[in-house]
Amino acid sequence: MSPERLYQSEITSLPLLQRGKVRDVYAVDDEILLVVTTDRLSAFDVILPDPIPGKGAVLTRLSNFWFDRLAGAIPNQCLDLPLEAVLNDPEEREQVAGRAVVVRRLAPLPFEAIARGYLIGSGWKDYQASGHLCGIPLPAGLRQADRLPEPLFTPSTKAEVGGHDENVAFDAVVRELGRDMAEQLRDITLTLYTEAARYARDRGIIIADTKFEFGLDAAGDLVWIDEALTPDSSRFWPADAYRPGSSPPSFDKQFVRDYLETLDWDKTPPAPRLPDEIIEQTADKYREAEQRLRR
């Protein structure tokens, strides 16, 4: 059985390729990876020192749920291989059981594909300052957390661990990837968001925004990778508590961000420790999001 808290995996039978903010990635061979979702939590692009118990297992189950549910829209990274196929050691399998997936090894695109349906977070700050959201003009008079006239595609660069992602204009994606691929990226991002938001709303959750990552297979076709519509990659709001004009309560790590904003911390490493009650409440929020979405 996987440990309740896993801050860092230790798999010695496979080469470690990288430790990201949340995921540890191991090479099985030239075509297959083992991805372990730990209980690490990052906020403001800084990894916090305290794990959130059970978080990695929740993220894994939710990602697998969405990859399966939306498989008709785009292929994804997942392979139908059990852990036994890539990890011979029973202790290593036990360490990562329920939080590890076997996936195709793909070339990731250098952008995070962000879909925004509501005016919140950095988008709200941008709008207050300029009347635009990531360079896209919006109507005057919108309030914090207002629903946007239509969902928007707002890509960003992908920073290394410890760095900060930066919003970029669609034209920057076109220059890097070519117009056809950039338009494919935009269109599938908005399709996935729209379908997921409709499903979630029927279960009492508003998906305010979310980020996707994509890679290319050997044929140059888009494949959905990394994670799928989790509380780490999305803002989840309880629909019954949603009130535009202020930042709604959430089922995601915004709860931790809000706590950190009350501290005298400059958002650079090292991050402060989290009180036990914040850790427990965060774990509860992640579990509740999963329970609502998978019911």
Summary, kept brief:
It contains 7 helices and 15 strands. With 295 residues, the protein is α+β, with helices and mostly antiparallel strands.
Low-confidence stretches: none
Percent strand? 15-25%
SSE arrangement, N to C: EEEEEHHEEEHEEEEHHEEEHH
Radius of gyration: 19 Å
Kindly state the percentage of residues in helix.
25-40%
- Describe the sheet with the most strands: 7 strands, antiparallel
> Strand tally, please?
15
Descriptive notes:
The chain has 295 residues and is an alpha+beta fold. Helix content is 30%, strand content 23%. Strand 1 and strand 2 (23-27) form a beta hairpin.
Structural features:
single chain; 295 residues; alpha+beta; 7 helices; 15 strands; 23% strand; globular
Topology:
Elements lengths: L15 E4 L3 E5 L4 E6 L4 E2 L2 E2 L7 H15 L20 H7 L3 E5 L2 E2 L2 E8 L3 H9 L1 E2 L2 E2 L9 E7 L2 E2 L12 H8 L1 H23 L3 E12 L5 E4 L8 E5 L15 H8 L14 H18 L2
Antiparallel strand pairs: 1-2, 2-3, 3-6, 4-5, 7-13, 8-11, 8-12, 8-13, 9-10, 13-14, 13-15
